[in-house]
Specification:
The complex is a heterodimer of chains A (331) and B (429).
Chain A: H1 28-36, H2 38-71, H3 92-98, H4 101-134, H5 139-151, H6 154-165, H7 170-175, H8 191-215, H9 220-228, H10 233-244, H11 246-261, H12 265-269, H13 283-293, H14 297-330
Chain B: H1 2-23, E1 39-43, H2 47-63, E2 69-73, H3 80-90, E3 96-100, H4 105-110, H5 123-131, H6 133-137, E4 149-153, E5 157-161, H7 162-167, H8 180-192, E6 198-200, H9 215-222, E7 229-230, E8 233-234, H10 239-253, E9 272-277, H11 282-285, E10 291-294, E11 309-310, E12 314-318, H12 325-335, H13 338-348, E13 351-352, H14 357-360, H15 362-367, H16 372-378, E14 381-382, H17 390-406, H18 412-427
Helix pairs in contact in B: 2-13, 9-10, 10-17, 17-18
The chains are: A mainly alpha (331), B alpha/beta (429).
InterPro entries (chain B): SBP (IPR006059)
Keywords (chain B): Signal, Transport
Family (chain B): Belongs to the bacterial solute-binding protein 1 family.
């Protein structure tokens, strides 16, 4: 539970004045109080936050607004100085995007991806963090080992997975006649599963780190008390570790949803640009194909806006479900 | 409170500035005079063309001290079309790019990135005189203007590995590959004997241009020289288109071609016994593959001298970002004159798009007889149709092809029928 939840104020209501022996009638006193008052602190806070606000505006707000603007225009990447008409077309780009069966397929693919990736990330992340926290030897080695894929370039990781799952690759050799036919990456039922596993494995180190930070904050005394009461490791994990990591799980789930919904590199590189019959096509890859490769920035931008709404919807649904569970628990 | 207002005002001003900047889609000046001066050009990044580019630029610079040309390889990207599209939008395109793709021209014209070569007094006469009016007309845009100079072609043919053919018991010097049945029998022998993992390995990926190296050359041959689109209508939803689709579907169904992307060149790595490609690839086969080449097959085994194929040509355009356009045009004529076309041929093995190719460079072809076949084929080539939204059209065609032909998830006749209406809708947008 955070300090805020304990009812502690965010900042002291009346900061203690420094012990100055000066006479109360000193003329400088009111001015000093003015500079150190709540309004002055608000101003300092605003000034300190300003660079980040500027960053947010330039890096996020402007592209989103520009993306929306492009999505309602017959937009062309015009040469500077060229007189190219870019008329307002209303929702035409959205209609065109939504009428494309590949777009519907891409959103379904992402749902399939998230259904594998997010639960696996949460379960493996939490479990591994709990195990890593208990290790007494080779802690640093294992913590680094899980983090290595995360900091390795995607192209290198994808190369390794291609070696494992390509036709005639290591997995096919290991499985022999049990190997799937068509092979993993050209199998419309398995290609997205392989990608979901690859992404989970690659990102896991980061999420383990988040969970580990949470696990290390749980007081040992709780485990000791539970142990005295006869709780085994599984019971301790369920009764102490999992509830204590609830806020981190919310963070991990939200991050995994956002990162997963923007899936691009793996379908592009591992399955040759969308897999068999679009089985691994993702909305982000479709944005690239439409907006960059095919010179239809309006349609690409419309898909981008739809993807943003989709992420908000999925993340919002997750938040709603959590609130519901918390409300039931409180009741 | 005053400071708060100042802060809010500053933030608002900053936001407005950012939004105004975001709202700017174009601005500045392009500079449109046909004047002379230094220029920048881009050429392809394969070793042979880089050598040709450097030699040609050096020759020009020696004779034109006030119109120096700086040549660079086209910047790296997933495709040169993407790089050029981005350069046009950014306003930093060079004066000339010796690597234009006819399928991308309509998009670049729409961007306002290309100068019509008709603007130069001798523009049309030079293009038609060099390439021939009939062939040149394929490269004309819908407004009747030339935005590209047809530069060179790479007639797509079937390359085969003579050593692998011999090992599989096939005639390495005169292989029977002219009909679909011949091809199928050879493929069965090559794969069945274990000599090759695959008979042929066109990329089964979904880049928009991949059909230029599997379906399209065979369709052109089977149809007697039809482009994919003619007079605003799809041509392929017919018996010829069906025959080609069924041929490739059979190859994939029998696992004679991979359904998965091969990282590398399967022909060079001897994983595939055949390749479908143009003569530009010969340089990469030198010392690695004992190759031979034959025209692409047709269902009935059309005589070789009647077979058409995909040109896979490259064109050169003058970009609107260029200030010294007269120098750009003069350099373009210099780089594509008879002498420099001869240098291109001898250094790269690629066929300049000239009317008189076999006779003009007769000595080259007698010294390099393996290229004669390509020179003969170069007179019977067809390019991608010069239509609006060409890339979108090819992408939709590719998506359907993969689903139906490569992965067998839709009957080929159904795909051809729906692709024909999609193509018409794409080019009519």
């Amino acid at each position: 539970m955070s300090a805020m939840e304990h009812g502690e104020p965010a900042e002291p209501a009346a900061p203690a004045e420094p012990a100055e022996p000066a006479a109360p009638a000193s003329p400088a006193k009111p001015a000093r109080r003015g500079r150190g008052g709540p309004r002055s602190k608000t101003m300092i806070g605003l000034y300190l936050a300003a660079p980040y606000v500027v960053y947010l505006i330039i890096v996020y707000a402007v592209p989103i607004i520009q993306g929306f603007r492009i999505s309602v225009l017959d937009y062309v990447y015009a040469a500077p100085g060229a007189s190219v008409p870019q008329p307002f077309v209303g929702l035409k780009n959205y209609r065109e995007a939504l009428s494309d069966p590949l777009l519907r397929r891409s959103f379904l693919n992402i749902l399939e991806f998230l259904a594998i990736n997010v639960p696996l990330t949460v379960i493996l992340g939490m479990t591994l963090a709990a195990v890593l926290a208990k290790l007494s030897r080779m802690k640093t080695f294992f913590r680094s080992a899980f983090f290595v894929p995360y900091v390795t370039a995607s192209i290198a990781v994808i190369g390794v997975w291609y070696f494992l799952f390509s036709q005639g690759g290591l997995m096919d050799h290991v499985l022999g006649s049990w190997a799937p036919n068509p092979s993993w990456l050209v199998n419309s039922k398995l290609a997205m599963v392989v990608i979901a596993l690859e992404v989970t494995w690659k990102q896991l180190g980061f999420y383990v780190l988040l969970y580990l930070a949470g696990v290390l904050l749980i007081p040992d005394s709780l485990y000791e008390a539970a142990s005295i009461d006869g709780a085994g490791p599984v019971r301790q994990f369920r009764a102490i570790t999992m509830p204590a990591l609830r806020n981190i799980t919310i963070l991990v789930t939200t991050l995994a949803l956002i990162v997963g919904a923007n899936l691009f590199a793996e379908p592009y590189l591992l399955t040759g640009g969308g897999g068999p019959n679009g089985a691994t096509m993702s909305p982000a890859l479709l944005i690239y194909q439409k907006g960059v490769e095919q010179g239809e920035p309006g349609v690409g931008a419309a898909i981008g806006i739809l993807l943003t709404l989709f992420i908000l919807l999925v993340a919002g649904a997750g938040a709603g479900a959590r609130r519901l569970v918390q409300a039931r628990e409180a009741a | 409170m005053a400071r708060m207002r100042t802060f809010t005002a500053a933030l608002t001003a900053l936001t407005c500035t950012a939004l105004t900047l975001a709202g700017c889609s174009s601005g500045g000046g392009g500079g449109g005079q046909a004047r002379s001066g230094p220029i920048k050009i881009w050429y392809s990044n394969n070793a042979q063309e880089v050598s040709w580019g450097k030699a040609t630029v050096a020759l020009w610079n020696k004779a034109h001290p006030s119109e120096q040309v700086s040549g660079e390889q086209i910047p790296a990207g997933s495709s040169s079309e993407e790089v050029i599209t981005a350069a046009i939008a950014a306003g930093n395109a060079p004066c000339l790019v010796f690597n234009g793709s006819p399928s991308a021209i309509s998009g670049w014209v729409k961007q306002g990135g290309l100068v019509p070569l008709n603007d130069f007094p001798d523009g049309v006469s030079y293009i038609q005189g060099r390439t021939g009016a009939t062939v040149a007309s394929e490269y004309k845009s819908s407004d009747g203007k030339y935005y590209q100079l047809p530069w060179k072609s790479n007639p797509v043919m079937i390359f085969y590995n003579k050593d692998m053919f011999k090992a599989a018991g096939l005639d390495p010097d005169h292989p029977a590959l002219s009909t679909y049945a011949d091809f199928e029998a050879a493929a069965q022998k090559l794969v069945g004997s274990g000599v090759a993992q695959y008979a042929i390995a066109p990329a089964p990926t979904n880049e928009f241009y991949q059909n230029w190296y599997d379906y399209y050359p065979l369709y052109i041959a089977q149809s007697g020289g039809q482009p994919l689109v003619a007079n605003g209508k799809a041509t392929f939803d017919d018996a010829a288109g069906q025959a080609v689709a069924d041929f490739w579907a059979g190859v994939y169904a029998k696992n004679q071609a991979p359904k998965e992307k091969y990282n590398g060149d399967a022909f060079v790595d001897k994983k595939a016994a055949m390749a479908i490609v143009g003569p530009w690839a010969i340089a990469t086969y030198a010392g690695k593959v004992n190759w031979g080449a034959v025209p692409v097959p047709t269902s009935t085994g059309m005589p070789a001298d009647q077979i058409h194929t995909f040109a896979d040509s490259k064109t050169v355009s003058v970009f609107t970002a260029c200030k010294n356009r007269q120098s750009a045009w003069d350099f373009l004529k210099f780089a594509t004159d008879q002498a420099n076309d001869g240098t291109l041929l001898s250094m790269t093995g690629q066929m300049p798009l000239r009317t008189d190719l076999p006779t003009t460079y007769a000595s080259y072809f007698s010294a390099n007889p393996e290229y004669t076949l390509f020179a003969q084929q170069a007179s019977r080539t067809v390019e991608v149709p010069n239509v609006a939204n060409g890339v979108t059209m090819w992408q939709d065609f590719r998506n359907g092809y993969l689903k139906s032909v490569v992965f067998g998830q839709q009957p080929t006749s159904q795909w051809l029928h729906s692709a024909a209406s999609t193509v018409v809708s794409d080019i009519g947008k």
